[in-house]
Amino acid sequence: MLALLLSLMLLAGCAGGTETGVPESSAGGMSADLSAPAGEAAADGKTAGTHTFTDALGRTVTVGRPERVTALMGSFAEVWLLAGGELAAVTEDAWDERPFELPEDVVNLGSMRAPDLERMIALKTDFVILSSKVSEHVDLLDTLEGAGLTIAYFAVEDFEDYLAMLRTLTDITGREDLYGQNGLAVQAQVDAAIARSEGQPAPTVLYLRAYSSDVRPKGKATLAGGMLADLGCINLADSDTTLLDDLSMEKILLEDPDYIFVTTMGSSEEKAMASVEELLISNPAWNSLTAVQNDHYYVLPKELFHYKPNANWGDSYDYLADILYPET
Q1: Per-residue pLDDT reduced to its tens digit, 32-48
Q2: Under a CB-based contact definition with an 8 Å cutoff, are residues 112 and 134 in contact?
Q3: Which terminal residue of the chain, N or C, has fewer Cβ atoms less than 10 Å from its own Cβ?
């Protein structure tokens, strides 16, 4: 009888152990979770572990937590990193134009306008970030969707656009803290710079873009032009649209702006500034301008006013506010 009781107890112990691969401590409360299939819809109607948003082309995009991300623009790669993401590949402008350092294992896909798609797909990319403002990117829509890739288009023309993109990407990565650090904190810096213009006389400005063979006035629809407008400036290109088509020293003399700002385009700043010299500075009337006489002629740094400044938007606004409102 004793032997029989011991045998029954042994059998009972085996039946209550880990034969199914579930530890004893998992029995009971965890059983309901283990029975739920992967990707089960959450109670709020969203699929667990995913984020759904509308991209810059009006497309509805649903993405999980991607691990092999490609950005087809250097500035967008930087925003993804600022959101706490990891990068598998990016186009060569990330090395040529951006001030940030990339991990050594990030793959260079070549030109932003003609990236190596075969290599990108071979990397098992699971999320692609593109620009709706680059026509070549928009042309890739059908090809990339046909390859089964999850893709999203963004457009960043001003600080609000940057903030919205960062919000979306930190929602994907789950890094709310980085939205605060690289978004809300920057917004506070931008707001403080703009506040310096309140109650101050509105300065008149001429904002110019210099190319290797031309110089063109630009208005508030541009990166630096938008910042100048936010800071309370009256841009001659906004108030006199004829300047956009016909830049002449006569018109500049007539308007006589308080400040003149220049940004250079292209790979050679030297060639761009040679155009400014030839078309404007060499004119004897240049030195009679109020802006020139008051040393209010500035060539703006590319990293803050040509390339998207991203987490440095606040520094861009501060740079201009220090020039325009040094007493505040």
Answers
A1: 332 222 233 333 334 55
A2: yes
A3: N
